[in-house]
Amino acid sequence: MNAAIHAEWTKFHSVRSTWWSVATAALLMIGxxxxxxxxxxxxGEQLSAQDAVIGGTFYLGQFALVTLATLVITSExxxxxxxxxxxxxxxxxxxxxxxxxVLAPVSFALGALCAAIGAGIAIPLISGAGVPTxxxxxxxxxxxxGGYFALxxxxxxxxxxxxxxxxxxxxxxxxxxxxxxxLIGGLGLHDVVHFFPGMAGTNAMTSGTSPIxxxxxxxxxxxxxxxxxxxxxxxxxxxxxxxxxxxx
Length: 248
Hints:
This protein is mainly alpha-helical. The chain has one domain. It has helices at 2-13, 16-43, 49-79, 81-88, 92-128, 135-163, 166-186, 190-193, 197-205, 224-245. It starts with a helix and ends with a helix. This is ABC-2 type transport system permease protein. It comes from Amycolatopsis magusensis. Keywords: Membrane, Transmembrane, Transmembrane helix.
């Protein structure tokens, strides 16, 4: 497994799409946090530091991460490199495990680091406008963002393995993160919406009231990440099952 993980790390950091995705995620997350803090400072809107950071980390940065995590597996199917990968690592579960071992820590570090920098920018701006801030809330957001990004990357890895298509996988993940919850929320099923991965991640970063749905979650904030973990585990199980049954 050490050799497989090293090979996956080499493939991961040696392509330009990885760095473009990381740079885009960082720019969106940090930039939005600073812009939200500046809006509060100049406009006097009562937006908490926690929500200012979340607006950048969750809603914008996740799309760059979805692309990055999906390409880890679907790019190999697109180029045919998956045949070489499976030849050198015959145990297909080992291939998925090696990719996850590289992707999850990088995603956690990306989310936590960018959230921390965003908080460092937004909190002084908001505090200067007389809006109360909470270090504990900012720390919760930072750690939860890292955890959510790690779990979201594994979810995308599972979906990408199952579908073997970049466009199809990004479409399915985006639908589950945004469009389906919006549709269900429009039907008045707000409690159901909170159990989708995107909303559960948001609830983990806040005090339990989603700034997107506007209604309190039917569970405590600490339960948000375990709900995301269930989605990730289900996607990885599906991807692993299909990877074992199908030809490359």
